[in-house]
Amino acid sequence: MQKVPMTLQGYEAMQEELKTLKTQERPAIIQAIAEAREHGDLSENAEYHAARERQSFVEGRIAQLEDSISRADVIDPSKLSGDQVKFGATVTVADCDTDEESVYRLVGELEADISEGKLSIASPLARALIGKSVGDSFELTTPGGTKDYEVVSVSYK
Hints:
157 residues; alpha/beta; Chitinase A, domain 3; two-stranded parallel ribbon; elongated; DNA-binding; Tscrpt_elong_fac_GreA/B
């Protein structure tokens, strides 16, 4: 069983989602299926089929979350320090061509969400950042060409 690196916040969010699915979603779906069955013929009952489809989705998500939680290697970034980029670091990088700065937090693959600035540790940018320190420059090959970046700051929150 391969361990999956995950921040403490990501681990807690997964546990909360699992709890919600088991204690609220699952009972609501069971109730919806029971109500739909009371309407008679199940072969043409859209409510029944929608409830069963929702049940399938929720049960699949529960299994996925349970698997991820059981394989989690929880790392608390607040207990880390230094100026070198490691898992859990919040990194500010500057595009050397445009001087545009971006802030990313290096997180596990399962909790990555670029819209929130959470960058998967498996992404090319994160792999290029690992081991770099403040002031280090690096080159990253992207589909749009080669980009030069500089590490502006590193923090652990």
